[in-house]
């Protein structure tokens, strides 16, 4: 009887095509590069190849960056059977050849589509072609799909994203699924089983504070997007990350602002998707993007999103519990003036009820390391005196002293 029930169950799974998102991916926040923030629709195969090569040559691959993702506007038309083709002028060698090249560098390859009739750039969307598109991506060697939300009138978000998840599963290739629904339907509440990451907001823009009016929609600055993450930390974790959008590091913010933007993306477990021209980027930009101590905080295996514990006069203090009893602590100065701090650890108790972790500086002494200067700053027995420059951070790693 048990045998019979098991066979019936197996048959049911086969018929209903039981699917799940590709398992084992995104155990830590995905790292890579995406074409949109720097090139928008002005992409071609040479630009993507150059970026992939620079990712290796300039140390990003060694620092953990893995995915090279082409965003919108790679598409041509569908063929007579409905299979999507690439733009033959921009990608004359075809997507498979590009994927092969990226794989030959030891990197992974990502692509972009949309759950509606058209992508945001007006190219063919996947609506009604989900299984066909997933098959095509698998044939090309795609490892990552960013799936957008334009032209989706009357489409149900949960249904649409689950459908593409199932289509990807049926393609037989493990493909990381990056949902880009802008947080409209609160995907953090329902998408842990659907995607590996989901956008929590509309688009980022190359600004520090405030927004940018694009006529019919607003894009948000790095700091505004940071504010929009309020209340979401408990939804982030291994295999399912809040995505506050790709980084603008290197695209025109001041160096201190780039450093602060990057640090905060590390503190909140954001996927680290660079969005600048890696070939032409300054050494300063590359140093920020490849700071291994900051990246280690983002990639910490516990995957607990950081917590804002205080804000006074535009100085925010963030804590992030790390593995082995460590903590990351970040002082973020959003004020227009430098801030002098005299931080008394002994008078501070951070009780993170979500992570079930509490600091107790009276009973545990920590060694303090500055993640950006790579210097030891003493111990938590003494107050920490420092200057946090305007629009910058002081980012620390605390490690319990060994007895
Ligand atoms: C939307 C997305 C962006 C980008 C563009 C492409 O705006 O949110 O990240 O993919 O579409 O057109």
Task: Give a structural overview.
With 403 residues, this protein is of the alpha/beta class. The protein has 11 helices and 22 strands. The strands form 6 sheets. It has an 8-stranded parallel β-sheet. Strands 13-14-15-22-19-20 form a 6-stranded antiparallel β-sheet, with helices on one face. A two-stranded antiparallel ribbon has the order 3-4. Strand 3 and strand 4 form a beta hairpin. The longest helix has 15 residues.
Distance between the termini: 60 Å
| SS element count, helices | 11
> In oligomeric terms, what are we looking at?
single chain
Number of strands: 22
**Rg, nearest Å:** 22 Å
Keywords:
single chain; 403 residues; alpha/beta; eight-stranded parallel β-sheet; six-stranded antiparallel β-sheet; globular; binds alpha-D-galactopyranose
Layout of secondary structure:
Elements: H1 2-16, E1 31-34, H2 36-39, H3 45-57, H4 60-63, E2 67-69, E3 75-78, E4 84-86, H5 95-104, E5 108-114, H6 130-140, E6 144-148, H7 157-171, E7 176-179, E8 197-199, E9 211-213, E10 218-220, H8 222-227, E11 241-243, H9 255-267, E12 272-274, H10 283-289, H11 292-298, E13 307-312, E14 315-321, E15 327-333, E16 339-343, E17 351-352, E18 357-358, E19 366-370, E20 375-379, E21 384-388, E22 392-400
Parallel strand pairs: 1-2, 1-12, 2-5, 5-6, 6-7, 7-8, 8-11
Antiparallel strand pairs: 3-4, 9-10, 13-14, 14-15, 15-22, 16-21, 17-18, 19-20, 19-22
Helix pairs in contact: 3-5, 6-7, 9-10, 9-11
The structure holds alpha-D-galactopyranose (GLA).
Alpha-D-galactopyranose is lined by residues 36, 71-72, 119-121, 148, 180, 203.
